[in-house]
């Protein structure tokens, strides 16, 4: 099958998956839409869909009509910063066939450590965020040693271990915040303010970019994507990670250090999640006030699966998720539809991507056509000679 | 002389017409194949690996659906959408790889999916055992109904598979390479059983590429090559040479020319290797021998006599209870595979799908797996992609791997080409010692010949080769000297393979004869 045909198939499959998901969403919106008559409900559904699909980029108003909203686009891009990092983190860990679910706790711990460094380490601007974020990443990397070593040395399930780890991390942070670190002068549990020097500034200082918190973190995230891609596809370590993921016995027989490489992939995954948390913290907040797992790690898993564990596809998947999330928020605000609907839409889309045999009939047709052409070509060549 | 034209349609239990099958990966495995079966015959389906035999039969059994063409069973045109439809029409299949549940007993496996129930939920074990006994006696296929499938020998597993099909009412039995996994005695038993079934009116399709077997038990044969049928013949009308020519399109050179070996220093030195497996069976018993530079030392023997365990020790997939193994004087027992490879040891593993390749990775990624960290393929922290592409292309060309490009997934290649990818890697890393474990098992004649020639060529260039093979023809043909293993011991050592006959080998392989300790000691050259 030619590359082009394969590409066309992939694109068609993605579009159909999204279409079906939207169809299901539409039906659900219609059912839950406010309105007494069928006409009303239809109108409400139309409004909701408009907000969900176009809302993330356009503002609709009765007076001035439809207008492009740069702020909303910047919001979406800013929302991608933490999920690109968790997406990359999960990509690297899953590539080694390790179902480590620790990105969720990892990003919270990274955010926390970075926040502490931003509060308590006196450094000068420029160096401060760098050190704080690296420290956040490094601590999470070290914590990920736990599931990684338990797996490689004792064959303990990394999935169970990392899942539990998330909650341990969350409660330890809550405990530390409540008992030692909270600024008691505030009405709710939050830390003291970060030092000014630790701030990650917006890319451009205007109302759109700073309002949306579109900071240099976004540029760093894109850099991380490129570095991760190079690491996974163009370096011997990434290669070893992928081979171990495909066939561990083969990797061992080939002479790769299987245990070491698995640990490396988990360390790196931990670092990415932790650093992502740190960057999010310093770009968006002025003190640490997270009291629960932020959810970016779970989104990261979805993103990694959508991206097929390919780092280069992570920004696309992250954009899609952020767009969808923004659309659903707007729908909830302006069209009075429950925001929980996003989970359903996500679930449906996810289902279609995960189901491998999906549209296999169509694929089969393409393949048959390809093979027939090849046979014909071979024949023609033979006869030509 | 192709026949079948003079017969009327009623005489065929199965007619497959113009069958074309294109797999989702684009492989056209069958192209316009015609195939028919007469009632009560044993019909051979022959062809090299990848010719499309299994594919054709999977369609008859409803496991795959044809892209085009029709299937007529007992005069009725059928849509065989699943195996249950095929079974309902009296078609049964024994697969190349057994499909039994290892943790269940023979009787439980027999009735799986058609469970006789006592009270709704629970399997009626007594009934299952009774059914198994009844069929076992009726068809004279001896099995132990109460034994767990994990514990029974391969030959018996196959009988269970056959009985499973018969219990479900099969009148047409498809056997996909049934003898590939059997010892010679088991094969002989199987043939008696198949003839017995034939006499009771059963129709049997027998897939194989072993010429002797075909000549012995089949009535007619269909030959496939490259997804096409090369015709139907009465077995008595054709010679082995005819078949071989039709299968590969040329006369196969079944013997490999080689100069006399000039053995050099000892490379691999094994002394007093002992191993008792987890079921307390002594698998290796005081095994000692040497392999020298420039020679091929063959290890023959019926499978399960310690060969697998021996190779496992040599590549640290297991550790012996006692004994020593050195390569050029360095002890390798318990050494990580990476270190063993650094000493220049290569392994063509017996189980190529498990160890030899990563099926989901490209050919390129597969051929560099042992050298990905080497300097010449890297530029600082990154791969030198140009060097890697060149390496892959060079190996694909040198080892004539049939593929679309270096980025094609290895899992999509045929068996012979997969093995070529493995040997391309293992032979090209400047080895001092090559361990070749069943290097040509189950692959096509072309690839077999290629790999055998390569082994001889490499040994003559000064590499030590240890060849373990259950294929008697192969070990006798390729080896300079030869060891026969029986019951974990070296039963015989032959300095020179000239003058050895199958009969002599057979006596040692089956344990009828055994050399004295002094004679066996000659395998050590110190
Ligand atoms: N499930 C499958 N998907 C894709 N290709 C397949 C599949 N099974 C077999 N093939 C390909 O079809 C061809 C014929 O295979 P097969 O029927 O197994 O041959 P044989 O049994 O004669 O060795 C081979 O090239 C093989 O790689
Ligand atoms: Mg086959």
How are the strands of the biggest sheet of chain B laid out side by side?
6-7-8-3-9-10
Shape of chain A: globular
- What is the mean predicted local confidence, pLDDT of chain A? 87
Give a quick account of the main beta sheet of chain A: strands, pairing sense, barrel closure. Answer: 2 strands, antiparallel
Order of helices and strands of chain A: HHEEHHHHHHHHHHHHH
N- to C-terminal separation of chain B? Answer: 60 Å
Strand residue content of chain A:
under 5%
Low-confidence stretches of chain B: 1-7
Low-confidence stretches of chain A: none
- Label the structural class of chain A: mainly alpha
Quaternary form? heterodimer
Strand order of the largest sheet of chain A: 1-2
How many structural domains of chain A? 2
| Backbone shape of chain B | globular
Q: What is the CATH architecture descriptor of the largest domain in chain B?
A: 3-Layer(aba) Sandwich
Question: How large, in whole angstroms, is the Cα Rg of chain A?
Answer: 24 Å
Q: Which structural class is indicated by helix and strand composition of chain B? A: alpha/beta
Q: Overall mean pLDDT score of chain B?
A: 88
Helix content of chain A: over 70%
How many beta-strand segments of chain A?
A: 2
